[in-house]
Design goal:
Length: 668
């Protein structure tokens, strides 16, 4: 039967160990799954952040491309406006004055400066677009590395990432195709020339008709005098000079524009040539301003001199016109430089278009690489799962073997130790149970006694509280009475001398009332102290009487337990004298046949007599202490009586040696 129970216990222990091993294995698998899920979550968050960053970069690239396109269109419009202004200046030069020419030259310089700024902005936009394209390439490379990394295991997330990349690249392609505006050709540069030629021809015909018709206004004024005819002739000559100068300026501008167009068509478009053209144009502008100022001075001199130095003025003006022709030729060169810049901008737009095509090809390559990486990732994931399963199976077999080897050897020793420990614990629990039952009985008796004492003290406390409330009410009434008397005394203060006597009497009454109140307070405190002392005395008396009864009932049967029944008395001073009396009795009565039992009986009888007398003395001390408490403790008699009684009650050991010693002598 015992072997069967041991075998069942062993089987249960083995089953528990198997359950623990299975729970540990489940915990390990759950931890591995949590770690894998955490890795996937980190990879997913990193990829999502990269996708968001790429989307922001793509959006910024779109914005930059839109800005570059707008700048290119603005530059195209500015170029067209400049060509129109040049044509307008060439058309209006014949009829404009010196101030108009200066204004046109300033406007031309402002336009040229504006075009230069726009060219610089276009170059900056081109550099920005190039940097954006490089940044997008780097971001695509980072995404490619992230997808190729062997950390992510979520196929759906990888597919979604690829779709987002493809969608962003399609958006870039559509934006570039939508903003790929064709650049206009150089045909617009030839149109103003033909227009100016036709316009200049019309002006020339108008001038010739004006010169041929100029003498007609003088026919009706033949009778007006020779002064008017002379002034009219002078005005006509001045007009002819201005017309000739305007014609020469127009021809100079046309030739300059043609030369600038030819140079722009043949130039290489480098920055050095553009800078040279720019400096040259600035010099020519200054030179043109000087020529225009000289022309204005010549005109003023011609108007002042009128007919006297017309030929000299004409030659001087002819030289100035030649200089202006050269300046306008330089202006044409500057225009050619601007056309070259336009061509460069068109080439840059074509370069951006080719870059977009390259980006589309790169996107296709990336998609193909991502698909390959996806296949590789799936194969590696399957291989890793198979390897993990094989490791787990090997670990399980190893654990089963270890459990089988260790459980058979340690089962018997563990069972023996368990049985011995169980026996020891059972014996200990039995002893403790007996002790607890004894303590329980003692505690129940003590609890009943203390409950009665507590009820008495509560009643006394309630009575004391009621008395205190009555005294407080009396004190309040006395104070109210004193206040009334004081108010009455103040009202009749100066009436007669009897009021002084009345006031003294009232003061004496107040003093008596105060002393009476203090006395009542002292009596109340004394009553409370007496109540507390009485309760303690009653508890001691109850304990002493109970001890005496128990002692008297047990002293005749087991005298050696007397010292244990009175725990408040010291056994060290009583017991040695009892032992000495017993030894003395044995020595003296051995010859006469007295036995040790009889000696012990005599000693115990003597001890019982002495203890009973001591208990009576203790009762007398308690009564004395109670009487001393009732007396006023502040008087000399009360203090002496209280001190003597308290010494007797609190130190009963001082009088214990004499009865015990006397009983021992008596036994001897």
């Amino acid at each position: 039967m015992r072997l069967t129970s041991e075998a069942e216990d062993l089987a249960r222990a083995t089953e528990q160990e198997h359950v623990q091993l299975r729970s540990k294995e489940k915990a390990v698998r759950a931890a591995e799954e949590r770690a894998a899920a955490e890795d996937q979550r980190r990879g997913r968050e990193a990829a999502e952040s990269n996708v968001r960053r790429l989307q922001a970069d793509v959006q910024s690239a779109h914005d930059q491309i839109a800005e570059v396109t707008q700048q290119f269109l603005a530059m195209q419009r500015a170029k067209d406006a400049l060509e129109t202004d040049l044509a307008r200046i060439a058309d209006e030069t014949e009829a404009s004055s010196t101030s108009a020419a200066n204004k046109a030259s300033r406007e031309t310089e402002a336009r040229i400066a504006k075009l230069e700024r726009q060219l610089e902005e276009a170059n900056m936009a081109r550099d920005t677009a190039q940097l954006t394209r490089e940044h997008i390439d780097r971001q695509h490379e980072e995404i490619r590395k992230l997808v190729m990394a062997p950390g992510s295991h979520d196929d759906t997330f990888r597919d979604r990432l690829l779709r987002e990349i493809a969608r962003s690249e399609e958006q870039i392609d559509s934006e570039m195709r939508a903003r790929n505006i064709p650049v206009p050709g150089i045909k617009s540069t030839v149109t103003p020339s033909s227009k100016r030629a036709s316009t200049n021809g019309t002006v020339r015909e108008r001038v010739q008709s004006l010169s041929s018709a100029s003498p007609t206004p003088g026919s009706p004024r033949k009778s007006g005098g020779s002064a008017e005819v002379a002034s009219l002739k002078q005005q006509m000559q001045v007009l002819e000079i201005k017309m000739a100068a305007s014609d020469r300026v127009r021809q100079h501008l046309e030739s300059s524009l043609r030369e600038l167009t030819a140079e722009l068509d043949n130039s290489d478009g480098s920055k050095a040539s553009l800078q040279a053209y720019r400096s040259r144009l600035a010099k020519e502008n200054t030179r043109l301003g000087e020529l225009l100022s000289d022309e204005a001075e010549a005109r003023r001199a011609a108007q002042q001199a009128q007919l006297t130095g017309v030929q000299e003025m004409w030659t001087k003006f002819q030289s100035q016109l030649d200089a202006e022709r050269e300046n306008y030729a330089r202006l044409e060169e500057s225009r050619k430089a601007l056309v070259v810049q336009q061509k460069n901008a068109q080439l840059e737009a074509e370069t951006h278009k080719r870059a977009n095509v390259e980006l589309a090809q790169t996107k296709k390559k990336l998609q193909h690489e991502i698909a390959e990486l996806k296949d590789r990732l799936e194969s590696e994931t399957l291989a890793k799962k198979e390897e993990t399963m094989s490791k787990r199976q090997a670990l399980q077999r190893l654990q089963d073997l270890e459990v089988a080897s260790t459980s058979s050897s340690s089962a018997q020793s563990e069972l023996r130790d368990a049985v011995e420990a169980f026996k020891t614990k059972a014996e200990t629990y039995r002893i403790r149970l007996e002790e607890l039952e004894i303590d329980k009985v003692k505690l129940e008796r003590s609890e009943a006694v203390f409950k009665r004492l507590l009820a008495d003290q509560e009643n006394t406390l309630n009575a004391t509280a009621a008395e205190r409330d009555g005294l407080a009410q009396r004190l309040k009434d006395a104070e109210i009475r004193v206040q009334e008397l004081e108010s009455r005394m103040e009202e009749i203060h100066g009436e007669s001398a009897d009021m002084v006597v009345l006031r003294k009497r009232l003061a004496e009454e107040m003093e008596d009332e105060r002393k009476q109140f203090e006395k009542e307070l002292a009596d109340r405190d004394h009553a409370a102290d007496m109540t507390r002392t009485k309760s303690s005395v009653i508890s001691r008396r109850h304990f002493v009487s109970r001890t005496k009864n128990v002692y008297l009932s047990t002293s005749s049967r087991r005298p050696w337990l007397c010292a244990e029944l009175v725990p408040s008395w010291p056994r060290i001073r009583c017991w040695p004298e009892i032992q000495q009396g017993v030894r003395r009795t044995r020595r003296t009565r051995r010859s006469s046949g007295w036995s040790a039992t009889r000696a012990v009986t005599q000693c115990s009888g003597a001890l019982s007599v002495s203890i009973c007398s001591r208990i009576d003395q203790y009762h007398d001390a308690l009564d004395t202490y109670s009487r001393a408490i009732r007396i006023n403790p502040h008087s000399p008699e009360g203090a002496y009586t209280t001190g003597r009684a308290s010494n007797i009650v609190r130190q009963p050991d001082s009088a214990c040696a004499w009865p015990v010693g006397r009983s021992a002598s008596f036994a001897h």
